[in-house]
Amino acid sequence: MAPRNITTLLFDCDNTLVLSEELAFEGCADLINEICEKHGLPERFTGSTLIKEFVGQNFRGMMTSLQERYGFTMADAELEDYVRREEDVVIAKLKAHGLPCPGVDDVLAKLEREKKYEMAVVSSSALRRVKASIEKVGQDKFFGDSVFSAATSLPKPTSKPDPAIYLHAMEVLGKKADECVAIEDSKSGTLSGARAGIKVVGYVGPYEDDKRAEMEKVLRDAGAVVVMQDWAEFESCLKQIESGSV
């Protein structure tokens, strides 16, 4: 493959920049169980079972999946009420307990000093939540206004694995897919970036040690061209893409 002139790095947020997935799923489990009870569904969830089922999807995406699985329909007003409630619950948890993924701040600071790449956040999560996450850990200074949300930034809200949010981010930034690299930790996020034509670096650092090999395969199967265990490997992964070796 020919070398690539990479100009832009597109970072997922949850469990890629900020350790937020466990907090978020813990926060929304009670709301989802309330919905299950209200609609007569047999299923009940905990934060950990939600992660296994829906990692990489936003709350709206989870609700779509639940409705499809169990054949029920939520009225628009009901869905929007729960979306707002979930945002408030999760944001409160993130503001109290959010932490950066290990090693990512050093990578972001180096990229900022070098000024070789434009950087943006491209997330499924609501814009309020994404901004609360990166502000809590002090990463907002690296991205400015280049923060994009599949739940908020699009004319019609959606969720990864739909590639719409990546396509939108590239349009706003004036970039083409072959000059971008996405960094993702989930199957749905990796599919989203790959379907937008972007080379994806998979990241399995937040997963338990005994799950990393399994998740590496999941991300590679979803389209990640290279997978890193730790942010210390990012520079090497990026060089592989730029050289055209992957």
UniProtKB/TrEMBL annotation:
One MF term in the entry's GO annotations: phosphatase activity
Pfam families, A to Z: Hydrolase
The keyword Iron is annotated on this UniProt entry: no
InterPro entries: Beta-PGM-like (IPR051600), HAD-like_sf (IPR036412), HAD-SF_hydro_IA (IPR006439), HAD_sf (IPR023214), PGP-like_dom2 (IPR023198)
Name of the protein in question: Uncharacterized protein
Record has Membrane as a keyword: no
Keywords from the named record: Carbohydrate metabolism, Magnesium, Metal-binding
Taxonomy, superkingdom: Eukaryota
Cofactor field: Mg(2+)
SUPFAM superfamilies: HAD-like (SSF56784)
